[in-house]
Amino acid sequence: MVKTRAHVSEVDPVWTRITKEAETAIADEPLLGGLVHSSILHHNTIESALAYRISLKLASPEMPEQILREICDWAHVADPEISQEARADIVAVNDRDPACDRYILPMLYFKGFQAVQAYRVAHWLWHNDRQDMARFFQMRSSEVFGVDIHPGAKIGKGIMIDHAHSIVIGETAVVGDNVSMLHSVTLGGTGKEEEDRHPKIGSGVLIGAGAKVLGNIKVGNCSRIAAGSVVLQEVPPCKTVAGVPAKIVGEAGCDQPSIEMDQLLGVR
């Protein structure tokens, strides 16, 4: 085990930090030993741990954990980008969420992170002619996490969804890299249109709690959407929008709103 960990530390610093934090967690709270061992220390790679955690959460009488775990394992082997994106998501959550001070926390406890990782497997299924299984993943993620992401949506890396309650992301939505959003965000359509009908969110965007972005509109890179806003028109890059319907109220205030997480709209 020591030899394996030393090798991993050379190529996977995220996983090495998680395993070290897991050992500390058990020393601090022995009653969590079973959870931490089964979820983290029993595995040699982050891919294995992710497959275990996702399958455990999504399993039901309709679909046993073992089958779901095999599906997740296949996805990680077929597309290594899935676990690379997961690493970026872990770092993003740790950097941006003040409630997160360890890499192990998203893996064990944060449903926003777990829901995004379940989506990533579902997205792989969707694009490999397994749409029905992808829909099963979507259904169970919605039931378990309260996060409904269509497997056809395109979501980048470095994603942080804080609290992650009542998140809805539609089929043709696109979310860039390093995006942060809070609870009750909707990236939805405006009616019964069937083609490209959902928002295109640029990289570095911050979307406040309860914001609704509707229709096939673009939200420019490094912009901010204030909490409770309803966005119906295109948002230029590096701007802040607020209101119902949302209007431009100023500049974004910084180069990377999704990282700064400043939602005060210039008020101090």
From TrEMBL:
<dbReference type="InterPro" id="IPR010493">
    <property type="entry name" value="Ser_AcTrfase_N"/>
</dbReference>
<dbReference type="InterPro" id="IPR042122">
    <property type="entry name" value="Ser_AcTrfase_N_sf"/>
</dbReference>
<dbReference type="Pfam" id="PF06426">
    <property type="entry name" value="SATase_N"/>
</dbReference>
<comment type="pathway">
    <text>Amino-acid biosynthesis; L-cysteine biosynthesis; L-cysteine from L-serine: step 1/2.</text>
</comment>
<keyword id="KW-0028">Amino-acid biosynthesis</keyword>
<keyword id="KW-0808">Transferase</keyword>
<keyword id="KW-0677">Repeat</keyword>
<dbReference type="InterPro" id="IPR011004">
    <property type="entry name" value="Trimer_LpxA-like_sf"/>
</dbReference>
<keyword id="KW-0012">Acyltransferase</keyword>
<protein>
    <recommendedName>
        <fullName>Serine acetyltransferase</fullName>
        <ecNumber>2.3.1.30</ecNumber>
    </recommendedName>
</protein>
<dbReference type="Pfam" id="PF00132">
    <property type="entry name" value="Hexapep"/>
</dbReference>
<dbReference type="GO" id="GO:0009001">
    <property type="term" value="F:serine O-acetyltransferase activity"/>
</dbReference>
<dbReference type="InterPro" id="IPR045304">
    <property type="entry name" value="LbH_SAT"/>
</dbReference>
<comment type="similarity">
    <text>Belongs to the transferase hexapeptide repeat family.</text>
</comment>
<dbReference type="InterPro" id="IPR001451">
    <property type="entry name" value="Hexapep"/>
</dbReference>
<dbReference type="GO" id="GO:0006535">
    <property type="term" value="P:cysteine biosynthetic process from serine"/>
</dbReference>
<dbReference type="InterPro" id="IPR018357">
    <property type="entry name" value="Hexapep_transf_CS"/>
</dbReference>
<feature type="domain" description="Serine acetyltransferase N-terminal">
    <location>
        <begin position="14"/>
        <end position="118"/>
    </location>
</feature>
<dbReference type="InterPro" id="IPR053376">
    <property type="entry name" value="Serine_acetyltransferase"/>
</dbReference>
<dbReference type="GO" id="GO:0005737">
    <property type="term" value="C:cytoplasm"/>
</dbReference>
<dbReference type="InterPro" id="IPR005881">
    <property type="entry name" value="Ser_O-AcTrfase"/>
</dbReference>
